[in-house]
Design goal:
heterodimer, A: mainly alpha, B: mainly alpha, 1% strand
């Protein structure tokens, strides 16, 4: 960096406004790079340093990060769809038609929401598979694995409750088939099914219940659970690939 | 008197009675006081760039997919007209396939419950730290996974086809009560399918991790087989067809 551009930069990064936002200088040195991560609420989920091993693509395939990205895409496209959708059995389907036909980019937004939802279920499953086969559920990561299992179940729940909302034949019968399975449980089964549907059949009560679960309850719990999950990845010492690097080092301290 | 101990012992003493030592005054990058040399990099900006690349990549793929493939919207929901076939969403269709082969209590409740409990309990059963952070933990682990996958990919489709051709429900209609033909027998079959590889493995004196590798691989491959069977090979009446020979122009992919 030339002296001139450096001083222009420090004019910016030492200004009252910049400092009120970031509380640290331009991140071109170890201290400011550390502060960038620790003094920012979003970056704070990351560790300050990571091992090269855990960054290797062939270790994690980035599947956890991709899950989180898909979740974000779903929240954004979902909120856009909420501006037009009405959870009533008379108006839901016409609202879908309107989104498809007359809302600007409505069909595109719906496509993005639906394909991201399918992709997220798939990617979260693949992420779990990679975590399992790399043995990353072992101590100290047991709890984060359990948080992960709950995230998988919630991902399925979010997808399933969203499936009913278009109120077309596909969604109606898929949910009917799906909730019938719950009804087979002994003793509590029929009651559970009725609690989920708010009645004996898939109708207005079911639609409003699924809608509320889909747009509020499940995503809110997921945001909290994902935050815990990512924070725990850091607290557990980064990815499990780090542990291998660490134990190799303990066995052979001179090795690089 | 010159110190005789090797340099690494001096910097990273293994056994010492001293409670303090001035090792060196240095200008360095790492805040990792008291730790050996490590192979780490600052998260800023490497990890963030990595995440931005994934963000752009994922969004681009979804953008393109959403431009070219429209989300389905069938006719408005009608409780009086059943669609044929009526399928659950793809991530539950494995369960629907399972329901074809056994009592709903077993397929819809017991097996899913056992699977979730298995996932939750997994890190508490296999709690040794060895083998974390490495794909399949070892070369032997890799072979175990490959052989188990091969075994399951043969046995599970065979079970589905066999049970489809000679349904226990039909064969034993008059000779055994339903809970035997639909509950006990299929449960035993599934159990035996799981136990055979474990018995083979037993002769290799497996670690807990290797037992888990076997069980998880059976679970994963079975889930894929049942999902593909239900999704691709079931047509009208939920009967078996080859995907390219579906009657009535039924296309499984229309139901995504
Ligand atoms: C909404 C779903 C999920 C999100 C957004 C998510 C996100 C992440 C991220 C970003 C990481 C960092 C490493 C990586 O990218 O692979 C991670 C690691 C991890 N995840 Fe998830 N995850 C989800 C679901 C799950 C599930 C279903 C499981 C297991 C049942 C799980 C268990 C773990 C564990 C144990 C780690 C540490 C991995 C290691 O140390 O190598 N997560 N997760």
């Amino acid at each position: 960096m030339t002296v001139q551009s450096k001083s222009r930069l420090s004019f910016l990064t030492e200004s009252r406004v910049w400092r009120s936002f970031f509380r640290h200088g331009w991140p071109d040195n170890p201290l400011d790079r550390s502060l960038t991560m620790t003094s920012n609420v979003f970056f704070h989920l990351h560790p300050v340093k990571v091992s090269r091993k855990s960054l290797r693509w062939s270790y994690s395939f980035g599947l956890g990060v991709i899950s989180a990205i898909l979740f974000a895409v779903l929240v954004i496209t979902g909120v856009i769809l909420m501006f037009y959708y009405v959870p009533s059995i008379e108006r839901a389907y016409p609202a879908m038609k309107e989104i498809q036909l007359s809302v600007p980019l409505g069909e595109f937004t719906r496509n993005m929401h639906r394909w991201s939802a399918h992709a997220m279920v798939l990617v979260v499953i693949l992420h779990m598979v990679r975590v399992f086969y790399t043995g990353a559920y072992k101590p100290p990561r047991e709890f984060n694995w359990v948080v992960g299992v709950s995230l998988l179940l919630m991902t399925l729940g979010a997808s399933f409750t969203g499936y009913l909302l278009p109120w077309d034949q596909l969604s109606y019968w898929a949910i009917t088939v799906g909730t019938n399975i719950a009804g087979y449980a002994p003793v509590a089964g029929p009651a559970m099914r009725e609690m989920l549907l708010g009645g004996a059949d898939v109708g207005q009560n079911a639609l409003i219940r699924f809608y509320t679960l889909h747009i509020a309850v499940v995503p809110l719990i997921m945001i909290v659970a994902i935050s815990i999950h990512l924070w725990r990845v850091r607290k557990d010492g980064g990815l499990a690939a780090n542990d291998v690097a660490a134990s190799n080092r303990a066995a052979n301290p001179k090795a690089k | 008197m010159p110190d005789q101990s090797p340099v690494t012992d001096e910097i990273f003493p293994q056994h010492t009675n001293k409670t303090y030592a001035l090792v060196e005054l240095m200008h360095g990058e790492s805040p990792l006081v008291g730790k050996g040399p490590d192979d780490t990099v600052f998260s800023f900006p490497v990890v963030l760039l990595w995440e931005i690349v994934l963000l752009l990549g994922v969004t681009l793929v979804i953008f393109l997919f959403s431009l070219f493939k429209q989300a389905p919207l069938e006719a408005i929901a009608n409780p009086l007209i059943t669609t044929d076939p009526a399928k659950a969403p793809w991530y539950f269709i494995g369960l629907q396939e399972l329901l074809e082969h056994m009592h709903p209590l077993l397929a819809g409740i017991l097996i899913p419950t056992i699977l979730v409990l298995f996932l939750v309990a997994l890190p508490y059963i296999d709690h040794a730290r060895e083998g974390a952070g490495v794909w399949f933990s070892s070369a032997r682990g890799k072979r175990i996974v490959a052989l188990t996958a091969l075994y399951t990919v043969i046995v599970m489709p065979a079970y589905i086809l066999f049970d489809n051709a000679f349904s226990l429900r039909e064969l034993l209609r008059n000779s055994a009560p339903q809970w035997v033909a639909q509950g006990l027998l299929p449960a035993l079959i599934i159990l035996v399918i799981n136990v055979i590889p474990l018995l083979v493995l037993w002769r290799w004196k497996p670690s807990t991790r290797e037992v888990m590798l076997t069980l998880f691989t059976i679970l994963l491959v079975s889930a894929v087989v049942f999902t593909l069977s239900g999704f691709l090979f079931r047509g009208p009446g939920f009967k078996m067809y080859l995907p390219w020979q579906m009657p009535n122009g039924y296309n499984p992919f229309d139901g995504l």
